[in-house]
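Hi everyone,

Forwarding the result from last night's run.
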Amino acid sequence: MIFSEKLNGYWEEGYHYYIEIRDDRMTVRDYRRRIMLETAIAYNAGQLDSGERTVISLSDNTLSTDGDGEPMTMIRELAFENGELKLLYYYTIMGETQYTLHKVDHGPFDHIIIRDDEYLESLQGVWEQWSPNGKGTPLIIKGNRISTLFIRDSAFRVVSYTHSPDKVYLVPEDFTEDHFSGMTRVEVKPDMLLATPIIMDMSMPVFVYARADMLDKITVPAGALAVPRNTMMPDMAPPMPMHPGMMKGMPISAPKVPAGTPQNDSSGDGHTCPECGMHYDDPVPKFCCECGAVL
């Protein structure tokens, strides 16, 4: 089969979609650079090189599916026309939308500035979680791997973005997602780390992490004091307190702190959590509301 160099390369819509074409293969990414679709393609290279409008057929045109596996968003048509790619997008709820993509000379991650050398060394070790009642579950960084109640030993990179170079984040190493499992990307501040957990349809307060000797000295953001709220039904009262580890798919145990790390004291009277040091008056719950440990 003959392929056209006019089509090979990178195509960018500007915000919604980004496409890479290499002969008979096409990769579609969304605005976060997540891979939405990888599929085989076919087209008439002679027709395309002559300047005629050329429809590109796709082996798979589904961009996303619903909970039952049925197509929810898809590409209705992809065509090369006047040096541009015309993508006819279909969403079952909103209908059709036409996007125009232009060929560009850079790859999909040109907007990312790697800051590992600048920040990685200073991020190493244990960061304690701030809570109104004292310490919560720690966040641990070892090399370029991170662990918390929500993240289990995941590789990350320290990055900024060209549109906001002064803001620094920890993001998954492959950059195909802008959040870790159950938690949005972690923002690096001079004396703390900020992250927002994702739990089903609940909007949760910001999680604040700081070094143990700074936990009572940092200025805690207002977002950390917010009450959880249901984003689908905002008028609903927040649920009864439940530690995130009890949610389906979430780990229950807190990350293990490296040997030699000072731990919170436990009174041993059954009223203090052995994992995070949270103290309870009678009646003592079955699970710690801070870290999820069995009491």
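The first strand starts at residue 9 and ends at 12.

Cheers,
N.
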